[in-house]
Amino acid sequence: MDLVPALEEPLKKVLGPATAKVMAEHLGLHTVGDLLHHYPRRYEERGQLTHLADLPMDEHVTVVAQVADARLHSFASSRAPRGRGQRLEVTITDGHGRLQLVFFGNGVHKPHKELLPGTRAMFAGKVSVFNRRLQLAHPAYELLRGDTDETVETWAGALIPIYPATAKLESWKIGKALQTVLPSAQEAVDPLPASLREGRGLLPLPEALLKIHRPHTPADIEDARSRLKWDEAFVLQVALARRRHADAQLPAVARRPKPDGLLAAFDDRLPFTLTEGQQKVSGEIFRDLATEHPMHRLLQGEVGSGKTMVALRAMLAVVDAGGQAAMLAPTEVLAQQHHRSITEMMGELASWGLWREAPPQKGGGGRREGGMLGGAEDATKVVLLTGSMGAPARRQALLDLVTGEAGIVIGTHALIEDKVQFHDLGLVVVDEQHRFGVEQRDALRGKGKQPPHLLVMTATPIPRTVAMTVFGDLETSVLDQLPAGRSPIASHVVPAADKPHFLARAWERVREEVEKGHQAYVVCPRIGDEDDDPKAARKKASGPGTRDGAGGEDADRRPPLAVLEVADQLAAGPLKGLRVEVLHGRMQPDDKDAVMRRFAAGDTDVLVATTVIEVGVNVPNATAMVIMDADRFGVSQLHQLRGRVGRGAAPGLCLLVTDMPEASPARQRLNAVASTLDGFELSRIDLEQRREGDVLGQAQSGTRSSLRMLAVIDDEEVIAAAREEAAAVVAADPDLTELPALRTALDALLDAEREQYLEKG
Fold it and tell me: Which of 84, 213, 456, 493 has the fewest C-beta atoms lying within 10 Å of its C-beta?
């Protein structure tokens, strides 16, 4: 029987079952290799003390500090009614700030003997507040004593690694476990080609692992980090380069629009000029569509930058060339909205695909198109396909797709079903890519006779470095220019708890907008019907991208505000007499569509909604938005919501209502949103506040991030250089036959779940 390689040895055999169980359950570490790649978060010098004023609330921390004083108190309680209860209060200091430690009961004896004034130690626990003072209750601690053979200088200057830890396993215990497995680092197989490593002056992997865990100097740490960042960036970029290379080998039908076809007719009837950005991005897309291998392009841009127009022109180009185009939307509301706006933009060039819901064009006797009243000679049928459609309309839509009558189809997940067949699918447009799994995207792409071209759209601006890391298999186009006629949006934070009169003024502003003939949105985190669980809603509404979820600033707060409750209160109170309606995800699709139609037609003054309106909803007459419990949403989500106003000639207003105190991280986040309309800047702020796992979508999966050292916001140069090196390696050796160590590292990075998250972005 072969011996297990040292780095694949289970921790259970090396550290014992108890420690291994905690490491597996709480840190996701199973093998010696996993533990060696569990890097220190930071380092402390024994002679220096942690800055206590910067400690985050409600997080498990490790600090190095000095005991200032310790006092033992007696008290009476139900368990010790005669005043025999004991409480030890220890105050530790960094020389400036102070932090109180509290021990109770039998747990006071050992710290009472050991934590004497002047003693230095590492302390680990969860930061809380008691009587307006920072406190660690029952912290674990490790005394820092100098060994007899160490000089004072050596002892004081020694670097202590502080590891990501849990309440079940403190940083110093992880450090001791690493001391046990560190000799195995010598057997680490190096994934970097020798020429790359030497050319860039990087340490060999075994040396980097030794220096990251047991550095002698700050220079050791820097050298080790530089090398380990390259490992992560390079292996990730090789994975993406191989995907790009494989896609480039696939055949596709080149789709070139006719000079006098549908696209030309559409452009001729446009009442405005495309922005420079739209023209540039369209040119990139048309060049890709004209090649005989599949386009894979990410179209990202600001809210309201005109991505739908660019996507529609790409779809029309494909229809011109004899193919069909499908747009996949994440919700029925958005699919219906896209269908409505695209048919409106196309006018008589869109023959009706939903004859029950849409009347024929004015004076539209003329010729019949596929059994329905149509428009111009070049017209193509635009159909909608969703899960809630009635059987007759669904049958007709399916028939139109398989016969080729429908040039464009817009739908939800219903497009992915097996029974949906296309005559000649040439282009797939995926809106809001992050909401779809890779299987769903591939299922739709698989419906083409040959792989169709792919255009992925996202309304969340992504910094270039993140796009290279997450969407590295896609070419990226950016729209950062707003069309002419878009109005500025003023954004303000409304501190409802501190200044209730500000909230009253917010409702006055809504009334003023309605009196001017405009409309308003009110957004709430929760629906509020009987199936709505406030506890689950509290956790959900704190949302991805927020640092203060249910376990942080949200703890012990009231449930998030709900659409149904707020709508009733507004209709009976500050907005009495206005036409108020509700919209949320659990309404019947027909009801949702009817509400949106009334709002779009101006028959509703105020729409109280959940984030169902976050993307795609376009009502130019809506000028005001009030977001209740705005601190429960992430930065990008707030930016998306805000983009629903200011879409017409009148200026927009967005009011961010919160109960959070001024000094809280939540308020800082809201202040950032209110201070800029630049989505790329906000995206950067958002990602800097989030843990790196969220960047790759990993946090929602419950697995560890594949990035442990690399910070995608800060390490742009490394990522860009790694991308170039990876492209060269894959071009020379696509199967990596000459680089077995790199193949091994690639297999370890891309288990099935991580590969899925990587593709999803």
Answer: 84
State both tokens at 751: 């288990």
Whole-Å CA distances, 73 to 87, 89, 108, 114, 122: 5, 8, 10, 17, 24
The pTM of this model reads 0.69
Q: Report CA Rg, the chain.
A: 30
Name the average pLDDT for the chain: 81
Q: Give the Å distances, CA to CA, from 737 to 245, 374, 724, 744, 750.
A: 15, 58, 20, 11, 18
Task: Please say whether the beta carbons of 336 and 588 come within 8 A.
Answer: no
What element of type H or E holds 296?
strand 296-301
How many other CB atoms sit within 10 Å of the CB of residue 48?
14
Looking at residue 441, its pLDDT comes to 62
82-127: pLDDT as tens digits: 556 788 999 998 888 888 999 988 888 889 999 999 898 888 888 8
Q: What is the pLDDT of residues 640-654, one digit of tens each?
A: 899 889 888 899 999
Burial class (CB in 10 A: 0-12, 13-18, 19+), 716: middle
Q: What is the DSSP letter of 173?
A: H
Helix axes 205-213, 218-249, angle to 10 degrees: 130
Span 44-53, pLDDT tens digits: 876 676 777 7
| CA nearest neighbour of 715 among 43, 230, 198, 241 | 230
Q: List the one residue out of 673, 672, 623 whose CA is nearest residue 644.
A: 623
* Residue 231 three-state SS: helix
Q: Distance (Å, rounded) from C-alpha 29 to C-alpha 22? A: 9
Q: Which residues pair with 652 in a beta bridge?
A: 489
Q: Report the alpha-carbon distance of residue 339 to residue 636 in Å, rounded.
A: 25
Which residue has better confidence, 695 or 388?
A: 388
Q: What is the 3-state secondary structure (H, E, C) of 455-491?
A: EEEECCCCCHHHHHHHCCCCEEEEECCCCCCCCCEEE
Q: What is the pLDDT of residue 438?
A: 58
Report the SS3 class of residue 360: coil
Integer Cα distance of 295 and 274 in angstroms: 23
Comparing C-alpha atoms, which of 379, 256, 244 is closest to residue 314? 256
Q: Which residue, among 388, 350, 337, 338, has the nearest Cα to 593 in the 3D structure?
A: 337
Question: Directed axis angle between helix 307-320 and helix 276-289, to 10°?
Answer: 30
Give the CB-side neighbour count of residue 364, counting CA atoms within 13 A. Answer: 21
DSSP one-letter code for 31: B
- From 683, 273, 278, 642, select the one nearest 479 (Cα to Cα): 278
